[in-house]
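Hi R.,

Here's the chain you asked about this morning:
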Amino acid sequence: MDVSLTHLQELSKRCKYIDLEIKSYDENKEVVHIIDREADSVLFMRELQEKNSLFLIRVKDNAKVYWDEKQCEIKQKNLKRVKFR
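And here is the predicted structure, written out as tokens:
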């Protein structure tokens, strides 16, 4: 564990490691990252999506993000299959 990294940076590093390790054993295996609220970050979700990673993240029910300079509320029930841009 690298103490100089933020929690999400460390988590991202570990996800990359897990992806590489699993693919080295069997490139046909799909990895699904299941993460608690520690990863409730749009930036982190975008990063996973850019790598075509599969993930399930429990998020806060009242999360807010900014999109086109407007504050938007995101409800967990609406995040079933969202593409993060």
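One quick note: Strands lie at 32-35, 54-57, 63-67, 70-74.

Cheers,
M.
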